[in-house]
Please model this.
Amino acid sequence: MIRRLRSAFVPYALALPAGLWLAIFFVAPMIVMLSVALETGSLISGFTLTWHFATFWQAIDLYHVQFIRSFVYGLVTTVLTIVIGYPVAYWIAFRGGRRKSTYLLLILLPFFVSFVIRTVSWQFLLADNGILLGHLKAWHLIPQNFHVLATSFAVVLGLTYNFLPFMILPIYVGLERVDESLLDAAADLYSSKRQAFLRVVLPLSVPGVFAGVLLTFVPAVSDYVNAQILGGTSTTMIGNIIETVYLENNQYPTAAALSFVLLAALLIGIFAYARALGTEDVFEAAAA
Amino acid sequence: MSTPQTAARDEGFGDDAPEPGTRLRGGRRSRGLHIYTWVVIGWLMLPIVVMIAFGFNNTTGKFNFAWQGFTLRWWEHPFAIQDLTGALVNSITIALIATALATIFGTLLGIALGRHRFRGKGLVDLVLFANIAAPEIVLGAALLSLFVTLGVNRGYVTIVIAHVMFDIAYVAVTVRARMAGVDPSIEEAARDLGAGPWATFRLVTIPVILPGIVAGALLAFALSIDDYIITQFNAGQTLTFPLWVYGATRFGVPPQVNVIGTMIFTVGVLLAVVNGLVVQRRRTWKPLSPALGEGATE
Model:
């Protein structure tokens, strides 16, 4: 009897340390941040909980441009990573053969270099008179005042570059599971190559694409490092705002409110997208 | 799982001789895709090549922008800048501590999720999913809110706390996946042979899921060493390697950064290659006993 009690107790004991850590340092902070959003005050005079809901509206009002811009950048980045990455994932999954893991390693190789260094390298590559633009300007192929840095193009380029592997990998995993004999069956039913892809492979790859979208869109919208290193004053994203308001202005309530609005917007976006796909795919992708 | 078709595909026939029934596979179109894949890989490598190359640049000014000749002098004194080296040491030690803690906690959680059923399991799954899917800025900002409200000073310790927080989920998910694929009957067999629960855990369960634990630990370490956003929010005045590099962009990134970055890159690649080779060897192991062999190979 004690044996039975003890074995029932085991999973709780196993889960306890991690569960406790996450409860204290992940779940609780979310609640605390919500309460901070409802506070008023300043760093000098201290913050008090006044249930000041207006902070949310003020925050959205002040920074809606950056919000929209971030979602646009995120959307464009996600679409670009799918367009660029899907063919790569397809080729590795169906034609990679024995060297599949080598190709995957090559795709992941950039991650062995710090994210900040990678982005700074792009800043270097895209410099106004640097290695690329400098030569093009010297050969008069582009106007002398042409610049890439501090434009939306540079920021989206950085975002796409940094998140491409996050899209390729899940799509690859999804495509790898496709049974190639389904393609044979399609051929037996007089399907053309194009039809076979569109009507067999593509629908089956949707969970993988969904997982990739989740791993790309959410961080891309919330990113601020790319905008900070490659962008300028006209490319500020909501992440930059949150960072500035939190760490430089110390206006904690506004910053907290902004974080929540961002989170809520992302959640709405994800669930709307999941609805459009069908909920079984959400859980399949989540389990992947 | 390997059907005759997939086995043939895995053997590398995909590109060359067509197998039977491959009317819809292979062909000229895949040549174009092949080249395209290499172009994308090349594009992904571009900043890395730049980083490595400019670690050898004989630059005189503060800004490492134009090529001024080849030199090895940065490699002779890679740790010459004290702040940078200090930040690097912070990054490594924080990553080691956070990985150690997250691996222990996450492995236990992963085992519980992969093998047992318990009340609240769905909730834990949701929390883990939320942790991995949530944007880093929200994770970092929320934790900062907690520290600010409690009046805790941000520094080394808060960074470690933050890193463990996001590492646990990745380890737990990795171990859970591995655990779920393990046949429970090997543990039952161990019990039949007289092993108590602790002995079973130590001698059967852990060795079998070890690849998952190692994979989770490596993932946690890599995430920790590279983390910028969550760290920036919870670091206070303490600097880690990514934080230092970012700060340096304002007054000129010294070539030592390129050198150190190249070193980290090389170590990472070696680890990945070694890990790949080890996995390959395990696949061709002859198991000592049928029961252990069942779970011990991939």
The beta strands of chain A are 39-42, 46-49. Chain A touches chain B through 98 residues (CB under 8 Å). The mean pLDDT of chain A is 86. Residues 11 and 196 of chain A are 46 Å apart (CA to CA).
